[in-house]
Design brief:
This protein is of the alpha+beta class and about 120 residues long. It has a 5-stranded antiparallel beta sheet with strand order 2-1-5-4-3. β1 and β2 form a beta hairpin. It is globular.
């Protein structure tokens, strides 16, 4: 099954997920997207850059000794805005692949997080 189909199935199954995307943290480009509404390319790439920034900040914090890193699975970063909650997942610290989910509220974050961790592990 291809990435596009996996994103479509994920977004359909994840209640409250209005966008599911696959991107590259290094290039800061979203490569595949499934969404309830169209997102312009520049907003998708800004979203990918936002995820990359979150992971860069988390790595800096870990290096500074402020926070530990989890060795038990994918890395996750959460960014909340006034309109939505953005979840970013990477399979590992050195892996540049990233899955992004956008939820209108924090109500569905726990369910979406579990599903997204499984998804990034299969890509």
């Amino acid at each position: 099954m291809g990435i596009t189909q996996q994103l479509e199935e994920f977004q359909t199954a994840a209640d409250g997920c209005s966008l599911a995307a696959f991107g590259d943290r290094q290039t800061r480009l979203m490569l595949r997207v499934n969404s309830d509404t169209p997102w312009p390319r520049e907003k998708l790439d800004a979203l990918c850059g936002q995820g990359a920034d979150c992971f860069d900040l988390a790595a800096s914090d870990a290096l500074a000794g402020h926070f530990g890193t989890a060795d038990d699975g994918p890395f996750c970063a959460i960014h909340m805005t006034a309109r939505d909650v953005r979840l970013f997942f990477a399979a590992g610290e050195d892996d540049t692949d990233m899955v992004c989910c956008v939820c209108p509220s924090g109500d569905d974050v726990a369910d979406v997080t579990g599903m997204a961790r499984t998804l990034i592990g299969t890509l």
